[in-house]
Amino acid sequence: MKQTPLEQWILEKTRINERSREALEEYQIQQLVKTLHYAKDKSRYYKRKLEKFDIDAIKTISDFHAIPFTYPEDIKKMSTDFLCVSEKEIKRIVTLNTSGTSGEEKRIYFTEEDLNQTIDFFRHGMKCLTDSSDRVLVLLPGRADGSIGDLLKKALALSDIECIVHGVLKDPDEVEQIIIENRISCIVGIPMQILYFSRLKSEIFGKFIKKVLLSTDYVPDVLIRELERRFQCAVFNHYGMTEMGYGGGVECQALAGYHLREGDLYFEIIDPLTGEPVKDGQYGEVVFTTFRRQAMPLIRYRTGDRARFSPKQCSCKTFLRTMDKVTGRLTNKVVFSNSQEIQLRELDEIILKYGEVLDYTAAYSETDTLVICLTLLNGNSFAKLQEEIIKQIRSRWKVHVIISWKPDSRTLNITNSMRKRNIINLQKGGGKDG
């Protein structure tokens, strides 16, 4: 088993002399203190937030846990207050609009050096799955300088790996031609879009694609199993978000969880109700703090993602931490009036196992009704699918279920943006998140 390339990269980056958690933790404490001083000195937001804290008194990780959390709502309300540099030093601004309303936009700022840190991580992270023989197709935004696709292309160029950045999947026929003409062996993309394409273009996918990197959203287990078994693909998962600088962690060849970007980020898993750290092996909310981020450092930022640290060492024998695959958003669920709770990931395992399903949406209404719309290549199998899916849902939850279907348009009816999937709230006054 090949050891994750991230280990040697982090050893060189941190300049620690031994492969030990203790040495890495000592480095991280030093970086956390530097980040706190920098943010308190440069950022209006953190100057207020950290006013009463004696930063130099922080000697241990436990001491650091006394620092208050940063919330996504804080960025939405006062993103410019986070800035630590002048506007002329900003290389890229990313606007995250998760609800479709301008009042809930988050703006994330990067300097050129911030983006170079991400390129450095991508360069070494992609070595987990690619080599010079690979030709990579990136189905993520990449036209703008500093976008995730652009950074990936620059990172792969440093390893002499050919990379084509196409953008999010919109025209499957066009992507099929790119794969054939360029003999693409590896695809990087959004999980549901990769599933869609593999089912629509299964012959081409099976012939050319040997490696897949799934990113930007929660990855259903059923999707991984299908790509592995049907196409004999090695399916790697990447964990990251724009607030992290796009990259947070990536799986090694063991395919057993992410090894984290521990030279640039400090990760925690906390109890989402109490805010206290949980033990390794227990699920909780992912929290992170940035190191050396110039434009917009984030301190104890609550992601809303559900995951856990693995209590076991990875079979690649690295001393780096392993985070088990994120299981989705903590809020990505629906709770009915009878207190029954349905998670999106649970619906995925029921619905996506059917190969006829190219995509689906789920919503819930005030009448405790689960509303599902399937995207199918054709409707010949709908009656049987409807019966089986309703039966399986009703066997687990006592809810009313309505299922409809729509044909695939070949111009991509699935979400062709970077917005994460969720269960839509149809209740009066409800938002999009369940």
From TrEMBL:
Q: Which Pfam families does this one have? A: AMP-binding (PF00501)
Identify the Gene3D superfamilies for this entry.
N-terminal domain of ligase-like (3.40.50.12780)
Superkingdom, taxonomy of origin:
Bacteria
Taking every annotated instance into account, which residue ranges of this chain make up the domain AMP-dependent synthetase/ligase?
93-288
Q: Which InterPro entries does UniProt cross-reference here?
A: AMP-dep_synth/lig_dom, ANL_N_sf, CapK_Type1_Caps_Biosynth
Q: Which NCBIfam families match?
A: DVU1553_fam_AMP
The entry's protein name is AMP-binding protein
